[in-house]
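Hi V.,

Quick status before I head out on leave. The structure for the redesign project is tokenized and pasted below; the design run finished overnight.
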């Protein structure tokens, strides 16, 4: 987990998880009962509520809960992440159709002032984004560093119980669907130079470039959209790098430029930058 490049911006804090896992493993060695199968009666999935309000509850809860439930009740050998994602998507569709639950970001995005038409126009941008991980958003840079360093000094946090949670970042799912798609297409391109995957990825990259124009139009009248200026510009730049990689026309600075685009922009992460980095490195 600590070596996952998606978590590089909070790597210093993930030592906590390592310590917890080590302690749990040690307890298991000391307790014969803990090693007996079939003795677990249930499991728990925590949803910390500091960054959750009623209008974003479904997006937060039903994005990961089905996968957690499957992990609890499956054999240890059941590790096909893509299959889990497919089943989760099917369950989310059933929830939307048959219940009052809507795990899509459409409703919270509409609270940000984005109409259905706006969301459609900005889909390449919105689908490419994720929030920063672990406690990076809740604490902010100063308090995050203090926690990693083990400091008890009080540091002002960016959120409290009066925060409205009505920004676009509040509506984003945990994992970028575009990043998953890009990873799969790049796998096919690198393994077998799949022409269909190459065309599909090039289409995706052109969408990253094209989103800049509708973003500018929408941001002119929707204030909540203006904080996406930096990530929109970066995504356009990333799309240009990606197209050059598809055409085997890498520029001298593309490797470093793509790597720079993986770093957080405030509370946002351009999740599709990591797959592009992998492609650019392979083509360089």
């Amino acid at each position: 987990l600590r070596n996952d490049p998606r978590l590089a911006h909070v790597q210093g804090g993930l030592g906590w998880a390592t310590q917890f896992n080590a302690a749990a493993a040690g307890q298991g060695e000391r307790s014969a009962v803990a090693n007996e199968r079939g003795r677990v009666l249930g499991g728990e999935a925590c949803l910390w509520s500091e960054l959750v309000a009623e209008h974003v509850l479904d997006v937060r809860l039903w994005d990961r809960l089905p996968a957690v439930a499957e992990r609890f009740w499956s054999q240890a050998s059941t590790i096909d992440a893509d299959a889990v994602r497919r089943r989760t998507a099917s369950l989310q569709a059933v929830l939307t159709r048959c219940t009052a639950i809507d795990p899509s970001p459409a409703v919270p995005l509409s609270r940000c002032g984005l109409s259905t038409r706006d969301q459609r126009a900005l889909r390449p941008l919105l689908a490419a984004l994720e929030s920063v991980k672990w406690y990076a958003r809740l604490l902010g840079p100063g308090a995050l560093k203090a926690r990693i360093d083990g400091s008890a000094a009080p540091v002002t946090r960016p959120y409290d119980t009066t925060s409205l949670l009505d920004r676009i970042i509040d509506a984003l799912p945990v994992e970028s669907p575009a990043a998953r798609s890009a990873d799969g297409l790049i796998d096919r391109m690198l393994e077998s130079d799949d022409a269909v995957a190459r065309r599909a990825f090039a289409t995706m990259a052109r969408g990253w470039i094209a989103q800049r124009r509708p973003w500018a139009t929408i941001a002119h009248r929707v204030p909540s959209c203006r904080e996406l200026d930096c990530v929109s510009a970066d995504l356009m730049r990333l799309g240009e790098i990606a197209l050059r990689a598809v055409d085997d026309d890498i520029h001298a600075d593309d490797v470093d430029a793509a790597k720079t685009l993986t770093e957080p922009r405030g509370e946002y992460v351009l999740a599709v930058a990591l797959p592009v980095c992998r492609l650019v490195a392979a083509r360089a």
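Above is the designed sequence. The chain is about 55% helix and 0% strand.

G. will cover questions while I'm gone.

Best,
W.
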